[in-house]
Amino acid sequence: MTINDLQDEIIEEFEGFDDWMDRYAYIIELGNAMPTLDEKYKTSDNLIDGCQSRVWLQADYSDGIITYQADSDALIVKGIVSMVVRVLSGHTPQEILDADLYFIERIGLREHLSPTRSNGLLAMVKHARAYALAYSMK
């Protein structure tokens, strides 16, 4: 699936919810479904600056593809980062760098997050793109 296909899939999932309490519950559910990040990856290098909660993002590069894993100590944040991982993982560095992550706006996420969580979301995306940029140089 392409990055846009995955984004469209998330947008479609969120269209089934009428109010934001249901959407938040679903985001938490997504976080609970995401595998826990191995403790060896919970390092300062993988810790994302700019997030109110602690969020770790690990990237592995093999055969031209980046695979992301993440974790957070806050349930809603873990759900948010799980969507970023779902959309970007399994793609080439260039695909990630070229991606327009429109799902964030389309599901109304940015406007329903506190300013600190919104900044944290931007930091997650920036961190993921930094890995993609680094791997694109190899």
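The above is record 1. Record 2 follows with the same two-line structure.
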Amino acid sequence: MSGTVDTNPLFVIFGATGDLMGRKLLPVLHTFDTHGKLPGGLHVLGVARKPWDDTAFRAFAVEHLQREAPGEAANRANWCQQHLNYHSLDTTSAAGWSALRARIEAIEKEQGLSGNRILYLALPSVAFPEVVEGIGSVGLSKSPGWTRVVIEKPFGTDLASAQALNATLHRVFDERQVYRIDHYLGKETVQNLLVFRFANMFIESLWNQRFVEHVQITVAESLGVEARAAYYDGTGALRDMVQNHLTQLLTLVAMEVPPSFSDNAVRDEKVKVLRCIESIQPSDVVFGQYGEGEIDGKKVPAYRSEPEVSAASNTETFVAVWLRVANWRWHGVPFFLRTGKRMPEKSTRIVVTFRSPPIAFFRSEQPSERNPDRVTIILQPEEGFDLAFEIKVPGDTQRTQTHKMHFRYAEVFGPVADAYETLLLDVVRGDQTLFVRADEVEESWRLFDPVLRAKHPVVVYPAGTRGPEEAAQLVERAGHEWSEE
């Protein structure tokens, strides 16, 4: 991962009056400036449809900064006054786009900026094509310096829409300008996964089908759909989580050693993994939807009883899938992916279970008990690693117990940077390592498109449980069980 923060860009954020801006981007941009991470200072132009002026936008920003990063209100207002501007844009108006370009150039001249720009599309995906075309219509994809465009997931809703979105982007931008952001890839533990694998020879030498029995990747959420119901009911867990977040994690676990740690070398290896995954069979997929239940002692409604959700909805809130990576390194090793809402706790983890010794010289008090070594990579709630292994219990008997070596980033290094902070700094540096390339998006959709079309039955599971029983049976077919530690 390379690049330096030298000449600061103008951040032009489309959708600047939305939730993402208030909840994530504003606090990160404020941190950049107050912690001196952009040596030349920070300048932001918020763009949206609302007929606001600079004053109204700054009031919006102060309110959200107070909520997300509490501090002295007067200081927040002063910061917003110095760094934030607003432009109201009708995206259907050619004159509106020309006025936006003039406003950007005026700010750059006034602030003495060099013309480097980050165009951040904090927008619903349906708005991407119109905004990208508008940017191209007035030449905003080119500048006196460099221009980079950041887009949020979802990158399409199926293979055809992903290909169409990529084609639209490439009519206006070169791929080297495009940063498809997946915030999971900004987490410190995800980045350290590559170091963990490739800088520790004893780990990399075991990271293959000879020693690994199976791999599980779980993203569990205790929340339901909350305020996202209108979006989620037309999307579902496969599109929302599996095709992007979980598949990204799988590629980092399974990839080969890249020839270098340049951005394209790493992303080349991720694409190769996707191309090696066998077609997903209907029997290897479980869809679920949460019913009513109880979490933390509180009763919660069924998905179909949530506001803005159809009473007849068959949208999946849970997916479990068995993937097979058909290459020399992983032949015969099952990869199990699982995600669900209204599960007992919020947790994201990767569990790599190693094979047991072929002959059990040491037996526990329960001779049939089997405790293979495993590495657990934890992304949330606390980023870190666990290594589980067997030790002898003191005494005359040959009894063993499983114990863990434990590492947490916060305990060693203090608070970990927000994923958006990491990723936005990489955009400024021009480092695309942690961003998703066009071919990677399309290869992932080629894998999951048939699953979407197959119309799998959706099984109801009680809220507060770990998903439908069919998901447990899926793993049991391979002789394993879900790891819940």
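The mean pLDDT is 90.
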